[in-house]
Amino acid sequence: MEIKKLLWATDFSENAGLALPYVNSLSEKYGSEVHVIYVLEAWGDFGAWYGDYDQDEIEKIQVWAREKAEARLSRVCEEHLKGCRLYIRHIAVGDPAEEILKTAGQEKVDLLVLTTHGEKGRFHFGSVADQVVKHSSVPVITIPIKK
Q1: 72, 40 contact by CB (below 8 A)
Q2: Domain spans of the chain?
Q3: How many other CB atoms sit within 10 Å of the CB of residue 91?
Q4: Sign of dihedral through CA atoms 75, 79, 130, 119?
Q5: pLDDT at position 64, please?
Q6: DSSP 19
Q7: What's the whole-number mean pLDDT along residues 18-44?
Q8: How far, in Å, are 2, 6, 41, 54, 81 from residue 10 at the CA level?
């Protein structure tokens, strides 16, 4: 088996961080290129808002969220992925499962790594992990969270 590229999906939660030892180990063992993805919520998809927000305000929020995500991805990569030969950061906007699968296809990754739950892990298996596992065309490693 050869893993030239792997994709780790994160929501920056403590749960998502549980996948880091696996990402590091796999990247070191196979000399893999590591792709890290964070998916921002699509603010325009929520329909009616409470209160009155104009499009400029929504765009300002989205720009702020992207800047924060870029800073956090840089910090994660610098602090936790030092053993990686190469890491590439991705920020997408939309449905997390769809964006993870789309990025995996575009980048032609060999393996996906994610935890069974992100930040809102109330069930045995989260909805994003469930959709990724069901629809991925490449192997997926899911890391269970601690209860």
Answers
A1: no
A2: 5-143
A3: 17
A4: negative
A5: 79
A6: T
A7: 88
A8: 23, 13, 13, 30, 13
- Contact status, residue 144 vs residue 116, Cβ threshold 8 Å: yes
What CATH architecture is 5-143? Answer: 3-Layer(aba) Sandwich (3.40)
The rounded distance, in Å, linking the Cα atoms of 25 and 108 is 20
Instruction: Quickly list DSSP for 99-121.
Output: HHHHHHHHHT-SEEEEES--TT-
What is the percent of the chain with per-residue pLDDT over 70, rounded to a whole number? Answer: 83
The string of DSSP letters for 43-103 reads GGGG-SPSS---HHHHHHHHHHHHHHHHHHHHHHHHHH-TT-SEEEEEEEES-HHHHHHHH
Predicted confidence (pLDDT) at residue 49 exceeds the cutoff of 60: no
Closest CA to 72 of 10, 142, 115: 10
Averaged pLDDT score across all residues of the chain: 83
Look at the pTM and tell me if it is higher than 0.85. no
3-state class of 130 per DSSP? helix
- Give 88's strand partners: 35
